[in-house]
Amino acid sequence: MKGLTDKRILITGSTRGIGHAAARRFIAEGATVLIHGRQALAVQAAVADLSLAEGPAVTGFSGDLADRQACDRLIESCGDIDVLVNCAGVFETATVEASGEDLWHRVMEVNVTAPWRLARGLLPGLRRKRGVIVNVSSDAGLLGYSQNAVYCASKGALIGLTRALAVELSGDVRVLCVCPGPVDTDMMRSAVASEPDPEAARRSWASGPLLERVASPDEIAGAIVYAASSDCSFATGNLIVVDGGTTAGKRV
Ligand SMILES: NC(=O)c1ccc[n+]([C@@H]2O[C@H](COP(=O)([O-])OP(=O)(O)OC[C@H]3O[C@@H](n4cnc5c(N)ncnc54)[C@H](OP(=O)(O)O)[C@@H]3O)[C@@H](O)[C@H]2O)c1
């Protein structure tokens, strides 16, 4: 894809899952990738995994995005970047009655507040570089799912943030939102494993998309890289929905 060589790209949540697959693709496009995750050891392992002898440099930072000071440290450490990919996210399932204030704040801090803080803090460099912000939301930002009110609210808020930033920053920074459907990552695997009947839960995750399967992380990573590239230069404030047809409709 065009326009990614030598770009500096911060991807939150890139120690595993979708963010890690996106990092691998950006590196293949000649970009310099800044890995980020909560745990320092996982960041070190991801940097080692992605570092190629002849390839562009890979750097890593760790910190809990639920912590405002950790967000500030990340902003200071990064310097100017060309692309911010807000991919880190948390998924917690609970009925409305069982969802307390703690759960609400935990999910909102990572899924909405951190993307807003990072976009705000990194904005001077992003403006100078005519950069791109790619937020990773979900089909759950577009549909309601039972026992997922907080997660759905957080992903819907991220879509709203995307659109408002795109309007306000137009001319300087493009802002896009990738909305994946179900993806085979640790997030999905631990949600499936926590159900009383994990096999039925796995079938249920795979039954939503018209394609009747879950995606691989790489199938979402391609959309993230496209959004950041100059092949996507006429899009801003838009959603790129990669959900296997989940939101298109249902068979009757
Ligand atoms: N998997 C799906 O089915 C699916 C579907 C739609 C949307 N999404 C969205 O796609 C994004 C990536 O999901 P995934 O499935 O790849 O998740 P994952 O496999 O669980 O990986 C999550 C990543 O986010 C990081 N992270 C989580 N909480 C963090 C925190 N408080 N501070 C810093 N980093 C944190 C993790 O770092 P550590 O390793 O250090 O914990 C890890 O690198 C999320 O926003 C998710 O909501 C996923």
Q: Top keywords for this entry?
A:
252 residues, alpha/beta, Rossmann fold, 7-stranded parallel sheet, 8 helices, 7 strands, globular, binds NADP nicotinamide-adenine-dinucleotide phosphate
Molecular structure report:
The chain is of the alpha/beta class and 252 residues long. The protein has one domain (8-180, 215-242): NAD(P)-binding Rossmann-like Domain (Rossmann fold), CATH 3.40.50.720. 45% of the residues lie in helices and 14% in strands. The protein is built from eight helices and seven strands, in the order E-H-E-H-E-H-E-H-E-H-E-H-H-H-E. A seven-stranded parallel sheet has the order 3-2-1-4-5-6-7, with helices on both faces. The termini are far apart. The model has no long low-confidence stretch (mean pLDDT 97). It binds NADP nicotinamide-adenine-dinucleotide phosphate.
CATH architecture call: 3-Layer(aba) Sandwich
The helix/strand series, from N terminus to C terminus, equals EHEHEHEHEHEHHHE
**CATH top level assignment:** Alpha Beta
Q: What is the total tally of β strands? A: 7
Reported for the largest beta sheet, the result is: 7 strands, parallel
Say which molecules are bound, naming each kind only once.
Answer: NADP nicotinamide-adenine-dinucleotide phosphate
**Number of helical elements:** 8
Radius of gyration: 17 Å
Give the N-to-C terminal Cα separation: 39 Å
What is the fourth-level CATH superfamily? NAD(P)-binding Rossmann-like Domain
Q: Give the CA-based shape.
A: globular
Total tally of structural domains: 1
* β-strand amount: 5-15%
Structural class: alpha/beta
Helical content stands at 40-55%
Overall mean confidence score, pLDDT: 97
Poorly predicted residue ranges: none
Strand order of the largest sheet: 3-2-1-4-5-6-7
Q: And the CATH topology?
A: Rossmann fold
